[in-house]
Every structure is written in C-alpha cells, then in structure tokens.
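Lab meeting, action items carried over

1. Structure of the two-component assembly. Owner: GW. Status: complete.
Input record:
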Amino acid sequence: MSSVSILSKMKVIEGSKAIAETVKVCRPHVISAYPITPQTHIVEELSKIVADGELKAEYIKVESEHSAASGCLGASAAGARTYTATTSQGLLLMAEVLYNIAGMRLPVVLTCANRAVSAPLNIWNDHQDSISVRDTGWIQFYAEDNQEAVDMTIQAFKIAENPAVRLPVMVGIDGFLITHTVEPVELISQDMADKFLPPYKPQIYLDVKKPISMGNFADPGSYMEIRYSLHKAVEGSKKIIRDVTKEFEQMFGRFSGDLIETYNIENAQTIIVGMGSIVSTLKEVSDDMKARGKNLGVVKVRCHRPFPDEELYNALKNADNLIVLEKAISLGQGGILGTEIRSLFMEMENPPRISNFIVGLGGRDIPKSAIEKIVLRAEKSPVPFEFFGLNPEVLGGEI
Amino acid sequence: MSENLLASGHTACAGCGEALGIKLLMQALGPNTIIANATGCSEIFTSLYPRSAWKVPWIHSLFENAPAVASGIEVALKALGRENEAQVVAIGGDGAMADIGFGALSGMLERGHNILAICLDNEAYMNTGIQRSGLTPLYASTTTSPAGKISHGNETLKKDLPSIIAAHGTKYVATTTVAYPRDIEKKVKKALEVKGSKYIHILVPCPLGWGHEINMTITISRLAVQTGLFPLYEMENGVITSVFKIGKKVPVEEYLKLQKRFRHLFNDKSGAEEIQKIQSIADANIARLGLMAEPQKHPVTTK
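Predicted assembly:
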C-alpha cells in the first residue's frame, strides 16, 4: 500500500471522537452512561450521533455510574450489545457492578478514560482507577495512541461476544493524553465493521419463550467452582485475543493486537516495560538511543488481564536489566505490574535485574529526558522500587 | 388469576408475607413477564444455585440496582424490537427501594421507563437479621433500633415512599397488602395498562422480624389497614383517585399487641404515651385520606 493511499484513509481526529465513531460502527443496541471528566467527549459525541439518528441505539441517560453499569448489565442480559464509558471515581462507583457483570458472563464493553483517584481530587491521567479493578474478571486492554484505541474498541466487542469468552472487556485509554489529543487515525468504515463484527447472537438471554434465572445465589458447595470457571474463562480468552488479532490483520491489512508488543528488543541488554500512552515516549527514547548505537528494548503490556505471563517471560528473559514503569500503586506494598513481572522470574537462575518506578501519577509529565535518566540509573544499579521525580519542595523537605 | 409462577419448594419461612405477596403478584402479572430482583429475602429463598422457583425470566444482580437493571432490560427489548414480548418488573424490599436503591429507583422513574416497580415492604432489613430501614415504623424494636432502658425503639417516622414516587410524575402509584388478594390483582392489572413507570407498594408482614405467629400474617396485614396505619390507595398523576374505606376504626393497640417488635410499649407505663403517638399517625392518615367516610358495599377500592 502506498503512503498516499494510507494517508487518504486517515482522518485527523480527537481520541474521544475516534472512539465514539468506532462505537457507532459497532452498532451497540444500548448505551448507558454518566458523564465524568475526561470521559465526557466520548459520551457527548455518542449522544449527538444517536440524536442525529446516525446510530439506532437506546441511550440511557442514567443518574449515576452505578446505574450506568447496571443498565448495561440488564440490557446485555436481555440480549443486547451494550457499551459504556467512564473513569476514576465513576469506575470505582461501578466496582461491585463490574464484578457482577463478569460473574454473570455478560459481554459489556467499557472505555475507561484512565484518570487518578481522589483524594486529593485530580482529573489527570494515571492508571490507578482501572488497575484497582483488575481482579473483577474483566479483560483489560491499555491503548498506546488513538489508533490503538480505535482498533481495541472494535476488537473488544468481538472478543467479549465470542461464545468461548463471554466476558466483559475494558479498554483503557489515557485521560487527556488520548481522550483530548488529536492524531491522524484510520477510522473503520461501517462496511468493514459489519464484516469484522457480525450481529450479536447470544445463546442465553432473558426470554419469555425460554425462561431462565440469572444471578442466582451460590452457597459454599458451588461458589468456588463458579469462580474457578470464571478464572479459566479469563485465562482462556488469550487464545481468542490472538485469533481476533489475526482476523483483524487479514481484514484491515495492519497488525494491531496481541497481549504484548515488543519494540527493538533483539539483543537489548535493557528492556523497559510500560502500559498505555507512555509506550510512545519509550519507543522514541529507544529510537534516539539506537541512533547513538545503544539498544533499549521496549515492551508494551497491551493486555493486563488476562496477564500475559508466558509472553512477557519470553520477551524479557534474555535482558540483563528490566525496568517496569507504572502509573498506579498498591499503597503499602509497591508497584503492581512490577510485582507481577518480578514473580515471573522467581525460579530462573540468573534472572534479569528488575527496577520498578512509579511515574506520572495524577498527570505528572514524563518527558524523554526522564526516561533517559531512569535507564541510566537502572543500568548502573537496580532500583527495586521508587516514586520517580518527587519534588522535595512539595513534600516540605527531605524525601 | 392465572397459574402460580412462583414454584413451591422455595425456602421462605412459614407464614412469610413476602412469598405470598410475590405469588399474588405473579398470578396477576402472568407469564409474559421479566423480573429484575434486588438482593434480599425474596432473591435468597427463590434462587439457590442450581435451582430456581421462578417460572418466568428472572435476573438478580445487586441490592441497589434492580430498577437500573430493569431499565437496561426495557430499553434492550425496545432496541431489539421485542418490546411487546414482555412486561418488565423491578422487585425489591423496603431497603432496596427506599434506602440503598432509592437513587436507582428515582432515576428509573424520572426517565419514565415502561416498568412496574414493586416494593415488598416488610419494614426492616429482614434478610440480614431485622435491622431498621427508612420504612421501619415509629417505635418498632429492631436489632439496630432496639428498645432499651432509654429507648422506645425506632425513633424515626416511616418514610412516605409512595408520595415521593408520585412526585416524580409517576402516572400510577398504589399501595396494597397481602390480606387483600383481589386488591393486589386489580392494582397490578391496572398498573400494567399504564405506559411508562408505575409503582405498587405491598406491605408484607414478616413473622420473624415482626414477631408474630405464623398463622397471623393475614390478620396483621388486615389490621395494618383497618387501624389506618397502612392505608390502601391509588394515586394517578399525583392525585389520590381511590382509597380503601375502613368503615370503623380499629385502635392501633389491636395491631401492635400481636407483634413482639412493639411489645416493649406494653411492658411499662411510659409506653402508653408512645402508643398514643402511633394512634395519632393512624388518625392523621384517616383524616388525610378520608378513610372513615361511607363504608362501601364491596371490600375493594372505590373512586
């Protein structure tokens, strides 16, 4: 494909608008959402699309995120393709419904415009919100840029609705950094979307012709088995995620998907790992270093649940130094992704030296120079855990 | 009435007013019904995996979201072109509808979904062991509003949920109770004729929580009405359009003395004052709704 024809398909568009346009071509029957910064542009755009009759969908303008998720739950149980979007406090208000949706194996798709969690109140980006609900049984993706947000959104419906999966999917997009950023994007046409994503045909749903009970309570004699089945379903979704990646590539002529993405990792003594939009910065630093004759490998954790343990192990095992950057923390414990990656190498002889940095909380900027500093320090001597770039003045003295 | 759509073999207590209320409700609703059930006794005694007592499509999600789940079901049926297949009904107890799920119920009503919301009011959190709710009546002793040396039990008035619901512009609001099966049937069927949100509040005595004999459920349900403490009425578009006339007033003592939750009021002299306060609540209901006017020939609601 010539560069001209690629460009002719590109549209310069804000992340939120690109996602709304993608949701539109996925033809959800029901959208149930409550506005919250920085998710607002997505739901505003979808409201307009529905108001203009461009998408024949029912849009429930709910009174809270709890009801937004509950509306999706009910609609999905009745056999509808459903979509919602939220962030931060909204996602946490949904928390028990998120567990419920996954436990009931309902393929709801949710965009999380990743944002910090209060207190203190902060509307800017980090990953504390969706990382906090990583154990709900939702498949979790984190997009690097607007294009990946678009691709993940249509793939999310296809993965969620696969009869072998039947799980909800959350697409994490960095608040403001993706939601409010304008980039060239190849949007998905209605025609192509219809070919890639056929109409939703659930096998089990609320139907008076075939009455079923959903959401029964389970006593100690069966609860564990039901939770085990859910765990196996989340694990098992890896195969479908890969299959959908292949199908997407065949249909759209470009690779976008899988559980992780690797960049310049061949012969790299140091590999740096991240999730979301920071990966674009990491790739640039890697390119800069390459120009100076130095290898810095980059690994993007595109899918955080199911956790890509084998994929990460194989991608990272030959490095001398691993650096895990993350925009969330388990307070009183440390880095979550860092701990998960460290656990992969527990049984390995001469494992890579692992450094773990908490970066970019509450929208703190992470320039290329910061990444360069982090790499230099980690290569000199591993840093088991650190909040990177703290300002002593704000802390009122020593760190 | 049509077949019983709540199968026998469920695990409700003997004399459970709620199980009876659901049975009567389902007989009036018929099989073309989808139920969204809040967490609570009704969900627990009907749905222990892998069994179910429900002969209609039924979903339980959480404590506070049955009206929101029902909203999702209702719009999904519309979006899928299946809206004529079934009526959607949200069921919850007093805790689910008046307290923790009140926001979800308010949202459902304000949006005007074509849903019948049902509150099965047993006046406390019975499923968790008889803790007070916003619909627990004055001076009822519960495990979190116990009568004690310096307390006469629950110190707050029962929240007037039907009026709050009517204030949303809800087209049809009605109260009823299990002692009057024909009243339940009539009101449910009338509600179903209304397009949009509608609400029926059903008082369901709880032998365990109220502390009455299991064979007294109907008697107590009837006394709640005859004393004026739980008036039966209909509100259409915010206006009272019918009341169940009680003919002669039964003193509240007759209702209270059958229930352990009010026993402390009879154990010491100071209780008389509290009983008088409860009587004044009944008297105010009787005056406000005109319950004592001409008794009717038939024990059904009248215009």
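2. GW to write a short summary for the group page. Key points so far: The mean pLDDT of chain A is 96. Chain A has two domains: 7-252, 261-395.
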